[in-house]
Backbone:
């Protein structure tokens, strides 16, 4: 899970400054004064295409955050996004500088810049750009969702869910906001509500690892280890070592009676980057009898 | 009378022997006196009745008078001039006068008393003679006429009277009257005086145009003059006969006459002409000279004739002829065919006539007779021309005089020509006087409105330049510079116009006004012709103090210059040449002479152009510069541009400059009533916040407050700043701002959180007083919010609910601390206590839930569920000691419903809690403590490592 891994890195790229090369007046031509024509926003084209990824199969038209595979960007906005997800903010901002004139009226541009700041953990900046996107299009789902993401990252989940709900209300077909709502429900034990959401999502794609995992957790919450394992089993094995999948998978296995396997699963998880899961990992380990 | 005359002659001859005149005179007088004495005695004896005696007495008196008169004349001539002026003539000549009078008295007595006296003619003769002596011509003429009439025919007295009377007529130029008298007298006379009187007769003939008679008489007299008997009149005849020949057209005879005398006829003619001239016979004189010219072939002689003509025409005021003669003579002079004398005369007359005519031209006399005026002027100048030919060293002066004359006669073109020649000559002569004078003249002519415009232009400039060559600084030069300048300027000779200005500026540095006027013309011209560079050069000159102008004008020029440059740039803009406009605005800024206003405009326009170019650095820098320079009013008008730049920078993620620009915009719009302030404020504030730039945010807030930004907007920013203070551990500011926010309804929640955080901080540091202080503030604010029915945010509610939860825990704790025990009364009392506490707990929990905090709801349900469940378990598990089984059975049976109820209630609260979580979307970790009430062992947990998933695109449907 390369992308997720990157998120833990500390960003060192800064936003552009004015230390650009001076304009040489003699080299200016009258054509330079003609602004590039703004590319109008076309909702139907505001999507990622042709992304084939084992991990993210449901939401990879809406986000690259869950996409592990790499490919040549199909447009410059995708290029910006990929750079930011790869923490290559400098490169991303150079592109931003280049495309601004063409995309200045396009909410996608502002949203993607906001995403870069979210990924840089500069959340106030991110919110400013999301606000700009929603200024252009008040029902622009990605930015409504991403405002929620920022709140979620700031620990303000109660505010986050409001944003996700607004996003969902604006984009009935959008998957990420729904998924995010489901994640919050899972986080705070609202399993039934979460399960309902993830059931909807799995209906759209039955191979998406995140949705499969979420459904598994939902069932596990409710004490239904068997059903949980049904979903875990649909997840390719290489993803089961991810902490947010593997720990509960191990727990499910244990609860289903497969103690040994649960221990193996738990031990296969990378313990160096457990983060939030650190104490939970320890609790689960104790629970299933791992020393 | 013959006797008397004889005696008289004897006397005269006897006395001639005297050794000296005086002695002779004395001797004669003695003799006269002796005779006079004798005659008186005789006359007295006859009672003076004998007119012969009386006549003799008169003759003797007359003789005495003559002698004394001679003596008196001699004495008179001996006197010095001064003595002569002083003396009284009447007194001086009294002796002679007394005898003349005595003679006259005697004669008059005779004439009165003896009218028929036979010699009365002699008496009248004496009276006539005396009158003649006394210059009483009228009386003399009267008495000579009486003498003539009353004397015997052809008598000596008659002859003498005729001649005397003829002479009087002759002198009176009454030639016709004189002729018969001379003719009559000369028929009877052939004495020595014949030639003299005949000579006069010849002249009388001449005068009455009897040329032939006059010439004949002259020849007769000339021939007789050769005889010793006659007075020799030949020299006079040789002098005059030429005239007669000349005027009668008998020149050949005249030449023959003079050839015989071996004399130059022309010379004679000239002499004759001169004589005629003297006599006032102009025409005759002119004729003589004309004739002379006609016959004379020799140039040298001709020059003499011309010279004489000059005299003649001068005397008779024949200016035209005089000029003609002068010009003719000039030719001869130039050919060295004239003597020095003639040349001098020509010079004299040329000078005299030139001057005289010029004076006439200049006078008012001919002002209204232009033809005459012009004629006289032309003649004057021809004289001056002659004079100039004669005195080439005076060229400058004479040309000048000609110029003056031409000007006075309104012949302006000629005047220009002459002044010009005068100037050139004066220059060669190094004659400053006429250098200046000619220029003066030229200047005057050049200024004359009647001068032909082409000449005017040409000569005005020429003369001004010449003048200034001589005088760079003078009263006159001061007036000339502007006129010269205008002449050049009017003919579009800007190079020389500028040079004139330069010269003026060098010589009159302090005269701002004139320099300004000249500059204004030049610069206006350049401006109208779009010659910006030249215009700038002038402004530069002014700046370099080459030209001095008033401060006000300098400012005006700057404005002009700038306006011009701005106009150029604007034109470029209008034509779509934005690059040129860009360069133009930069140039304006580089231009030291540009006005501040122009520079400000340039800065603004540069900002706008760079904005169009998308040049972020430049648009920001010029935006800042223009904000510094522009007035608030202008900024308000163009605020959209600054906001657009700020937004552009933001769009390109150039945040600090974007924030800075908005900040500066706000500062400038501070006192204006405009919604743009709010936009600028929010841009600046939120960008500062985004950068976590606390200091800048504080500045923006301070500025926003000063600029009247709404308290709501200020509060929203303060709320965010409050977070930064806390994160950055700026607790003093945090405390201060929290207190400030506690006054705003919109920020009660944040203030409560802040006071709470501060209390925690102090608690962690063991500072209980401060902890209490902040808790007190927190609680007070909360109470206030409740009282004011202000909806608080979850964070604040969660904090405030903690206290209430603690209360619930306290009740719960009390409940747990009540240990059921027997005897029954004790049990019942304790049970009652527990049930009361459960009621209390339920009531309090309900209150907590109403606070609206998710945490409070979940916790309260958890506490309630736990309390009820635990109480039910306690009751259910209580078994009274030391009682029978039956009692126990009965005891438990009696409590079974209670236990069940409490247990159910516990489950109910659990269920309610879960429902509340779901219904209210309560997203709190406390949820799991509620869930834990029914879940055994490990709680399943899930956190997505990314918290939430970022959404890049709308995605496919």
Residues:
């Amino acid at each position: 899970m390369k992308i997720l891994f990157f998120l833990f890195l500390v960003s060192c790229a800064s936003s552009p400054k004015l230390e650009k090369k001076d304009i040489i007046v003699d080299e200016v031509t009258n054509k330079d004064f003609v602004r590039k024509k703004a590319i109008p926003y076309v909702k139907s084209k505001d999507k990622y295409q042709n992304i084939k990824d084992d991990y993210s199969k449901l939401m990879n038209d809406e986000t690259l955050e869950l996409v592990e595979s790499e490919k040549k960007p199909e447009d410059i906005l995708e290029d910006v996004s990929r750079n930011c997800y790869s923490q290559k903010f400098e490169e991303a901002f150079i592109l931003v500088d280049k495309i601004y004139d063409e995309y200045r009226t396009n909410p996608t541009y502002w949203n993607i810049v906001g995403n870069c700041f979210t990924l840089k953990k500069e959340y106030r900046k991110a919110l400013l750009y999301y606000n700009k996107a929603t200024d252009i299009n008040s029902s622009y789902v990605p930015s409504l969702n991403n405002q929620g993401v920022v709140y979620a990252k700031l620990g303000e989940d109660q505010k986050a869910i409001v944003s996700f709900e607004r996003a969902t209300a604006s984009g009935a077909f959008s998957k990420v906001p729904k998924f995010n709502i489901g994640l919050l429900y899972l986080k705070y034990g609202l399993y039934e509500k979460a399960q309902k959401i993830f059931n909807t999502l799995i209906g759209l794609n039955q191979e998406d690892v995140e949705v499969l995992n979420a459904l598994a957790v939902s069932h596990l919450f409710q004490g239904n280890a068997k059903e949980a394992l049904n979903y875990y089993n649909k997840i390719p094995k290489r993803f089961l070592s991810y902490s947010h999948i593997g720990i509960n998978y191990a727990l499910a296995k244990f609860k289903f009676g497969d103690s040994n396997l649960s221990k193996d699963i738990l031990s296969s998880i990378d313990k160096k980057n457990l983060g939030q899961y650190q104490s939970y990992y320890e609790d689960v380990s104790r629970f299933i009898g791992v020393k | 009378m013959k006797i008397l005359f004889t005696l008289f002659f004897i006397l005269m001859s006897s006395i001639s022997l005297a050794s000296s005149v005086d002695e002779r005179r004395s001797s004669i007088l003695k003799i006269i006196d002796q005779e006079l004495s004798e005659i008186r005695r005789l006359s007295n004896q006859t009672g003076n009745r004998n007119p012969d005696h009386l006549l003799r007495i008169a003759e003797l008196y007359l003789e005495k008078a003559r002698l004394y008169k001679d003596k008196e004349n001699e004495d008179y001539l001996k006197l010095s001039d001064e003595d002569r002026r002083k003396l009284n003539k009447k007194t001086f000549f009294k002796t002679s006068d007394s005898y003349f009078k005595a003679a006259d008295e005697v004669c008059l007595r005779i004439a009165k008393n003896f009218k028929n006296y036979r010699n009365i003619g002699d008496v009248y003769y004496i009276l006539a003679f005396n009158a003649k002596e006394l210059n009483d011509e009228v009386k003399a003429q009267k008495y000579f006429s009486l003498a003539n009439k009353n004397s015997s025919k052809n008598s000596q007295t008659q002859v003498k009277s005729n001649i005397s009377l003829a002479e009087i007529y002759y002198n009176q130029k009454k030639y016709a009257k004189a002729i018969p008298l001379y003719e009559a007298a000369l028929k009877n006379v052939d004495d020595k005086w014949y030639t003299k009187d005949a000579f006069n007769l010849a002249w009388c003939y001449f005068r009455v145009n009897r040329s032939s008679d006059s010439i004949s008489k002259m020849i007769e007299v000339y021939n007789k003059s050769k005889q010793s008997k006659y007075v020799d009149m030949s020299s006079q005849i040789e002098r005059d006969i030429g005239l007669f020949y000349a005027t009668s057209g008998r020149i050949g005879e005249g030449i023959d006459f003079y050839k015989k005398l071996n004399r130059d006829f022309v010379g004679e003619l000239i002499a004759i002409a001169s004589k005629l001239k003297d006599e006032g016979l102009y025409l005759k004189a002119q004729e003589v000279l004309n004739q002379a010219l006609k016959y004379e072939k020799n140039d040298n002689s001709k020059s003499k004739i011309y010279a004489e003509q000059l005299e003649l025409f001068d005397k008779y005021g024949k200016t035209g002829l005089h000029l003609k003669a002068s010009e003719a003579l000039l030719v001869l002079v130039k050919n060295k065919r004239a003597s020095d004398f003639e040349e001098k005369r020509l010079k004299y007359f040329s000078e005299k006539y030139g001057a005289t005519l010029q004076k006439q031209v200049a006078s008012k006399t001919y002002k209204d007779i232009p033809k005459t005026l012009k004629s006289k002027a032309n003649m004057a100048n021809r004289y001056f021309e002659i004079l100039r030919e004669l005195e080439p060293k005076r060229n400058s002066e004479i040309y000048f005089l000609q110029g003056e004359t031409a000007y006075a006669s309104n012949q302006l073109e000629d005047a220009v020509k002459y002044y010009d020649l005068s100037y050139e000559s004066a220059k060669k002569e190094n004659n400053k006087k006429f250098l200046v004078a000619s220029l003066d003249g030229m200047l005057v002519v050049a200024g004359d409105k009647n001068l032909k415009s082409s000449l005017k232009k040409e000569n005005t400039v020429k003369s001004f330049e010449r003048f200034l060559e001589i005088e760079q600084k003078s009263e006159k030069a001061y007036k000339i510079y502007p006129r010269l300048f205008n002449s050049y300027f009017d003919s579009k000779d800007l190079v020389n116009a500028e040079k004139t200005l330069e010269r003026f500026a060098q010589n009159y540095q302090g005269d701002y006004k004139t320099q300004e006027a000249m500059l204004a013309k030049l610069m206006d011209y350049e401006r109208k012709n779009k010659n910006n560079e030249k215009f700038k050069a002038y402004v530069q000159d002014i700046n370099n103090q080459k030209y001095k102008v008033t401060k006000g004008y300098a400012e005006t020029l700057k404005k002009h210059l700038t306006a011009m440059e701005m106009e150029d740039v604007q034109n470029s803009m209008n034509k779509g040449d934005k690059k040129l406009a860009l360069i133009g605005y930069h140039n304006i800024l580089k231009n030291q002479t540009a006005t501040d206003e122009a520079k400000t405009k340039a800065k603004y326009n540069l900002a706008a152009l760079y904005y169009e170019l998308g040049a972020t650095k430049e648009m920001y820098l010029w935006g800042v510069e223009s904000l510094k320079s522009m007035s608030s009013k202008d900024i308000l008008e163009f605020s959209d541009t600054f906001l657009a730049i700020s937004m552009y920078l933001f769009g390109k993620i150039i945040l600090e400059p974007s924030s800075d620009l908005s900040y500066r915009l706000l500062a400038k719009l501070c006192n204006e009533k405009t919604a743009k302030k709010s936009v600028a404020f929010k841009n600046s504030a939120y960008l500062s916040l985004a950068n976590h730039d606390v200091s800048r945010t504080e500045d923006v807030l301070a500025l926003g407050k000063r600029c009247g930004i709404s308290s709501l907007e200020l509060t929203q920013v303060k709320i965010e700043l409050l977070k930064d203070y806390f994160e950055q551990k700026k607790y003093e500011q945090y405390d201060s701002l929290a207190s400030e926010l506690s006054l705003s309804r919109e920020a009660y929640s944040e203030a409560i959180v802040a006071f709470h955080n501060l209390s925690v901080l102090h608690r962690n540091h063991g500072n209980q007083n401060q902890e209490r202080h902040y808790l007190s503030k927190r609680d007070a604010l909360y109470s206030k919010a409740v009282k004011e029915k202000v909806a608080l945010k979850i964070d604040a509610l969660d904090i405030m609910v903690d206290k209430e939860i603690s209360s619930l825990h306290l009740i719960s704790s009390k409940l747990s601390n009540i240990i059921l025990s027997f005897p029954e009364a004790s049990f019942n009392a304790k049970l009652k206590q527990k049930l009361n506490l459960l009621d209390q707990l339920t009531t309090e929990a309900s209150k907590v839930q109403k606070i609206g905090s998710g945490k409070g709801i979940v916790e309260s349900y958890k506490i309630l569920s736990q309390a009820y469940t635990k109480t039910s378990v306690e009751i259910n598990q209580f078994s009274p000691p030391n009682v029978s089984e039956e009692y126990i059975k009965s005891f438990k049976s009696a409590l079974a419903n209670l236990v069940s109820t409490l247990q159910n209630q516990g489950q109910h609260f659990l269920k309610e809690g879960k429902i509340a979580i779901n219904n209210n979307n309560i997203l709190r970790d406390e949820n799991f403590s509620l869930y834990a009430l029914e879940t055994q062992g490990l709680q399943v947990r899930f956190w997505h490592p990314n918290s939430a998933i970022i959404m890049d695109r709308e995605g496919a449907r």
Remarks:
- The mean pLDDT of chain B is 88.
